[in-house]
Structures are given as structure tokens and as C-alpha cells.
Design brief:
150 residues; 4-stranded mixed sheet; binds adenosine monophosphate; 38% helix; 19% strand; alpha/beta
Length: 150
């Protein structure tokens, strides 16, 4: 139930999409690879991890396009050689699994998803708006049904 009490008591960690189900790229992947992953998944931004699964930032479609934007044309041939690590966004807020869901909801107002890490920046997963909205919708429908039979 997504009421105020639940938001205060529930931990972000119980609501995340776990890391193994999150599309991601690695720092040394090419921008071409990142563009392929973003295009195939349909996401506009995905996490960037290192080989030990530590979180470093996000790579997004606008960052990739910016990297290959020449003065007169888009230099697509650069995609193969440029590395994700050089063009990703670094200053991404990191959330901890024990933070309250209310804290998460506040941050989701301005971010489509939140990256959740442990104390060592090990990537645990993401909290998305969709997960919370789905639950909220379910709760509203259940409440309406209970009201109808009482
Ligand atoms: P949603 O709330 O499901 O629309 O997701 C919002 C954003 O979260 C998407 O645009 C992606 O950037 C990111 N996202 C959601 N699910 C995944 C996933 N499984 N792997 C990687 N990124 C995801």
C-alpha cells in the first residue's frame, strides 16, 4: 500500500529493479555500443558500471549526440573510437537501499529513475517511477473495490 506511512517505513531497496535486470554499459565500451544498447532497449539513459559492477554514472542519448556533433555535421564515424567513460554524466545522486521510499519518491519527481548502490558504490539496481505508479494504481483500484462492496 503506497500511503504516507508506508512511504516513511518502507526501504528503497525493497522496490528496486535488481542489477541483473538493468541494461547497462561499461566505462571502456565504445559510444557505438552504448548507442546500440540505448536504441534496442528504448531507454534514454542507462547506468555505467566498471568491471567490478561499481556504479560510475549515466550515459544518455543526448550525451552521445553531443560527443559526435561536429561544426557542420554529425561525425558518426567517431562512435567506434570514443569511450563511454569520457562522455558519461558523473554527478548522479546515489541512493542507498536503506533510504526511505519517501526520500526516493521526492527524488523521482525530477528524475525518471534512481541508482541504488551499497557503501562501496556497488550497483544494486534502480528505482523507477513506473514501479511506484503501478503499485499506487493497484492500491487505488483495490480501495475502490472495497468501497463498492461495503
Ligand atoms: P520507467 O519508469 O519504467 O519508464 O523507466 C524510466 C527510465 O528508467 C527509463 O527511461 C530508463 O532510462 C530507466 N530504466 C527502466 N528500466 C530499466 C532497465 N531494466 N534497464 C535500464 N534502465 C532502465
Amino acid at each position: 500500500m503506497v500511503d504516507y506511512q508506508t512511504l516513511e517505513n518502507e526501504m528503497v531497496g525493497n522496490w528496486i529493479i535488481p542489477s541483473e535486470k538493468v541494461a547497462h554499459v561499461q566505462m571502456n565500451n565504445s559510444l557505438e555500443h552504448a548507442l546500440l544498447v540505448l536504441t534496442r532497449t528504448g531507454y534514454t539513459a542507462i547506468p555505467v558500471l566498471d568491471s567490478s559492477y561499481r556504479f560510475h554514472g549515466l550515459i544518455s542519448m543526448p550525451k552521445i549526440m553531443d560527443a559526435i556533433l561536429g561544426i557542420e555535421r554529425i561525425e558518426f564515424e567517431k562512435l567506434e573510437t570514443l569511450k563511454v567513460g569520457e562522455f558519461m554524466s558523473h554527478n548522479i545522486p546515489r541512493f542507498k537501499a536503506h533510504y526511505s521510499l519517501y526520500h526516493g519518491l521526492e527524488a523521482l519527481v525530477n528524475n525518471p529513475f534512481l541508482c541504488v548502490v551499497d557503501g562501496d558504490d556497488q550497483f544494486l539496481g534502480i528505482l523507477t517511477r513506473r514501479v511506484l505508479l503501478k503499485q499506487w494504481k493497484k492500491d487505488l483500484i483495490e480501495a475502490k473495490e472495497i468501497e463498492a462492496i461495503s
